[in-house]
Amino acid sequence: MTPRTPPAAPASRTSPASPAPSAVAPRSAAGPPARGVLALMSACVTLCVALVAATNLATAKLAGSSLHPSATGLLWIVDAYVLVFACLLIPAGALGDRLGRKGALLAGLAVFATGCALSALAPGTGALIAARALTGAGAALVMPATLALALHCAGAERRPHAIAVWTAATGIAGTLGNLGGGLALQFLPWRGLFWSVTPIALLLLALAARRVPRVARHPAPVDPLGTALLAGGFLALLFGIVEGPERGWRSAVVLGALAVAALLLAAFAGHGLRAAHPLVDPRLFAAPGLRAGVLGLAAVFFGLFSLFYVNAQYLQLAKGYSPALTGAAIAPIGLGMLVSARAAVLARRLGPGPLVAAGFLALAAGLILLSLLDRHTPYPAYAALLLLLALGMGLAMPPLSAAVVNALPDGRGGLGAGLGSAAREIGSALGVAVVGTVLAGHHSGGAPGRALAASAGGAGDATAFTDAMSVAFRVVAAVFVVLAVPVLRWLRRAGGTPGFGADAARHG
C-alpha cells in the first residue's frame, strides 16, 4: 500500500513540483559500488554515535584530570555534543536536500574531525565544552546525509536492505563506542581518546570524497526563521531534560527552559503552517506512519540509553569491572543487532506491525528483567538480557526508520533522516534523564556518577545502587509500554509500513 501523506500538505510546500537538478543526475548503483557506499555510510554514522558512548566512559579520567572540571562542567563536557547534535539534525537534513548531500557529508566530517582535534588540545573546561559542541555540529551534518546517500545509491529493490543495514550500524555503534573507548581509556589519557578518533574521521572524509557520487539537489528556499525556532526549541527542551536530574525538576532554571521550549516549538508549528516553504510542514504528521516512526524510534532509544547510562555504573560499582572490561561486557548488544539485516525480509513475510510488536515485546521484557539484577547476578544472565534487548531493537528499528523516511515526499530523504535521528537523540536524552532522576532519588549517594567516583566498591554501596537501579528500570519499562501503545495503533491505521514494499522505490 502506498504511504499516505496528508492532502492538506501539498508537495509544493516541501519540495518543488519539478526540481531542476543542480548536480549530476542520480545514477543507479545496485551492484558492488552501492555496497561500498553503504558500508562507508554505515562507518560514518557508527563513528558519530560511538563517540557518545566512548565519552561517557571518559568521565572518571576527566574528573581527575588537570582540567579540574566541576560536576556541572563534567556533565556539559558529555552533553554539549549530544545537545548540538540533536538540535541541528533536522535543519542539517533539510540543508543537505537543498544544497547537496555529498557536500553536507564532507563538510560534516571535516567539522567533526576539527572538533575532535580541538577537544584533544583543549586547555580548559570551557574550551573542551566548545570543542565538543563543534563536534556535535559536524555529526549533525553527517548523520542525515549518510542515510539519504545510502538510499540513493541502493536502487529501488535494495532500499529496504539499505535501511536495515544503516539501522543496525546505529545500534551497533553504542557497543563499539563502549568497547573501543574502554580499550583506549585503559591505556591512554582522556586526550588520547579524541586523538584516536580524529584520523578515523579524516580517513572517512577522504574515502567519501573519492567514492560517494554526487546526487541531484532539490533546491528550495531556505527557512531561516523555522530553523532558528526549531533549533532553539530543541536546545531549550534538551537543556531542561539534561539539567532536570541535577537541579531538580521544580527548579526555576529547568521549568523556565521547558516553558521556553514549549513556546518556541509552538511558534515553529505556527510558522510551518503559514510559510510557503517551511523547514517541516506540521501537517505531514497527519500521516500515521510518520507519527509511528518518530515516536517509535524515540521510545526504542529511550530504553536503550537508560541501559547505557546505568551499564557503566552497574558493572564498575556493583561488579568491580575495569573500564576496558566494562566496554567489552556490553558487546552482546552488537551481536543481537545483527538481526536488523534480516528485518526487511521478515517484514515482507510477516508485515511491519507484527515485527514492531515483537520487537517492543522483547524490549519491554528485557527492561523488566533488568530490574531483577543485583551484584551477585552472573554475567551470562546479564549478557542474555542484553541479547534480548538487542533482538527487540533489531526487529523494531528498521521498519520504524523506513516509516519516517518514506512518509515524506520525493527528494526529502535528508529531512526524513534528520527527523528520525532527532527522535533517537531526544529519546536518548529522555532515557538518561528519567533513569538518572530515579537513581538520584533512591540512591543515598545521589547521582550515580558521583557515587561511582566516591565509592571504594563497598558491598553496602553496591547493594544500595542495585536497589535503586531496580526501581529505575521498572519506571523505564512502564514509560516504554505507554509510548509503545500509540505507535502500534498508528502502524495499524497506516495499513503498512513504507519502505518495505514496492512503493519504497519512489523515495530517497
TrEMBL record:
One of the GO BP terms on file: response to antibiotic
Keyword Nucleotide-binding included in the entry's annotation: no
InterPro entries per the UniProt record, alphabetical: MFS, MFS_dom, MFS_trans_sf
Localization: Cell membrane
Residue ranges with Low complexity bias: 10-27
Membrane topology summary: Multi-pass membrane protein
Tree of life domain: Bacteria
Molecular functions per Gene Ontology: transmembrane transporter activity
CDD domains referenced in this protein's UniProt entry, alphabetically: MFS_MMR_MDR_like (cd17321)
Domain Major facilitator superfamily (MFS) profile: 34-495
Protein name in the entry: MFS transporter
Source species of the chain: Streptomyces hoynatensis
Record lineage: Bacteria, Bacillati, Actinomycetota, Actinomycetes, Kitasatosporales
